[in-house]
Amino acid sequence: MEEPAEIPAISANWSLIPANDNQAPDEGFDSERAVEYEPSLDKIEAAIEDLPVSYRAEPMLLDGFSVSGIRKEVHSIPTGGDVEYGIHVDEKMVDGQKVLTRHKVIVRIGKLRFSDGSQTERGQKLILDKVVDADIPMPVGAMLGSREKSTRDRGSETDASGSNSHYRWMVTGRTATPPKLRPKKGERLAISKGEARRMLAEAYANTSVLPEVKRYPDAFPYGPTNLRQLFIGGRKGKKGESGSQAWADIFTERENREIFNRGLDAMQEKHIRILTEAMSAKSLAELGEARGYRGRHAVDAGRRLLRAANDNFQQAMELAKYAAET
Q1: In whole angstroms, how far apart are CA 119 and each of 140, 171, 284?
Q2: Does a structural domain hold residue 114?
Q3: Which residue among 171, 205, 235 closes a domain?
């Protein structure tokens, strides 16, 4: 009697050791997030690289009254360049009385803007275990318009806070508030310019003292939220070209329109009617049938009429161009 063959053991590549989900992940396997700061360090260095400065040593500071911890701070003070200064008023209580001290502070270096203690920026605060939006006061010397954004975010809303603050500083305009709801006006009267001028003259004659004209400060419109869309010339295209249209292109379009209108006036009325009908006609036969032709004769007649109108149009355009050049 033969012994049965040995049955091989079934093996697997599964680990028999239970996994510990509470174990901290290994070093180097955490999720990463690419964050970009605006303005970047390169922009900050470019703004202060060629700035003329003078150096002033501040008084020595003792670290715990230890001579070994003596360190000396050296401050750099701008002496020229594109620098703008402002005034910060510091309030202190001395012997129960309020003492105001005025300090000269830097509020702008190139395109970098800094706070003089009176600016605020929108941010978030934690109030009663809830995150709410708030106007956070910026301390003296804090850089304004700084923000961080993830360079790997896609499809999110465009952050226009940086460009908006730049245009507000450049134009010195106020930000518009939401318009108030007003009752709708009645139906507008359709009157000619002559009647409007006559009514205005009568109103001036009947009014002895004209009301005071109020001039409001310059401000931006309530929309759009991205102020860069209001300044087309400040936008750049894919190849660095400006977003505004060149004056030569505008002049050329106006000349072409005048030449076209001049040539259109020189054309015969029947040819203009044929070209107008040809824009909506489905076939040449439709042009011929509109003039009493039928069948194949309608196709031949439509082709002949359209060709004659086209030749007349080209001749009129050439005459109009010649008249414009002379």
Answers
A1: 9, 18, 72
A2: yes
A3: 171
Kind of pairing between the strands at 61-63 and 130-137: unpaired
Domain finish residue from 138, 171, 204? 171
Q: Residue 67: CA atoms inside 13 Å, Cβ hemisphere, count?
A: 0
DSSP state, 143?
A: B
Domain that holds residue 311: 249-326
Q: Specify whether 291 is located in the same domain as 166.
A: no
Instruction: Give a yes or no: residue 67 inside a domain.
Output: yes
- At position 20, the amino acid (one-letter code) is N
Asked if 143 and 112 touch (Cβ cutoff 8 Å), the reply is yes
pTM tops 0.70? no
- Cα–Cα distances (Å) from 258 to 3, 231, 239, 251, 264, in that order, read 110, 29, 32, 11, 10
Look at the chain and report how many structural domains it folds into: 2
Handedness of CA 173, 174, 179, 180 (dihedral sign): negative
CB count in 10 Å sphere of residue 80: 9
Give 84's contacts (C-beta < 8 A, 6+ positions apart): 106, 107, 108, 109
- Per residue in 28-69, pLDDT tens? 555 556 677 888 888 888 888 888 888 887 766 555 555 555
Q: What is the pLDDT of residue 225?
A: 76
- The verdict on residue 26 lying in a domain is no
Query: What kind and span of H or E run contains 135?
Result: strand 130-137
61 inside domain: yes
Peptide bond into 178 cis (omega under 30): no
Are 302 and 292 contacting, i.e. CB atoms less than 8 angstroms apart?
Answer: no
Question: In whole angstroms, what is the distance from residue 173 CA to residue 220 CA?
Answer: 6
